[in-house]
Give the backbone structure.
Amino acid sequence: MEDFEREFTRVDTVRAILDKMIFGIEDPFEQRNAFVHLYGTGQACALIAFKRGHDGIYAELACIAGMLHDFSKFEIPGDVPEHAKKSAVRVWPMLRATGEFTEEELTMICTGIANHSMKERKDDEFSEIIKDGDAMQHWLRNPAEAYFSEKSRNVEMRKEFGITED
Ligand SMILES: [Fe+2]
C-alpha cells in the first residue's frame, strides 16, 4: 500500500482544543452527545457553506465555528444561560493563541458562535450558516423525528438541497 501522509489543517488544531474539553465531560452520555452534536454541526456547516457557493477556506471556518458553537454549553454542567455568547468569549483566546487565524477570521467565527441561538433572527451570511448547521445536525441525527425536521430552518434547507421526500 502506498504511504499516505495526510495534510494537517486548522480543523485538526481545533479538534485538539475541542477533544480536550469533551474528554473532560464526566457523564459518558453527555460526552457522546458533545462528540455527535459538535462534530456533526461542523460537518453540516461545511456542507451548507459549499452548497452556498463558498470555497474550502470559508467552509473550513464554518466547520470550525460549528465545532465550537456550543463549547460552554457542554463544558459547564447544567443550564448555561447565554451559552452562545459565553462560548464565543471562551473560544476567542484559545483560537487566537494558536496563531493560525487572522483577526478577521476570529471575528467571523466568534460572531457566528455568538449569534447562533437567535434562530428566529436573520444575521450575516456566515452566522446563518452556523444556525442552519446546528438545525441540520438536530434533524439528521434522527431523520424520522418530526420535531426537528419540521423546524422552519430545516423545511427551508430541504428545499435548498432539493429534498422532496420526508
Ligand atoms: Fe447546538
Summary: Residues 37, 41, 69-70, 134 surround fe (ii) ion (CB under 6 Å).
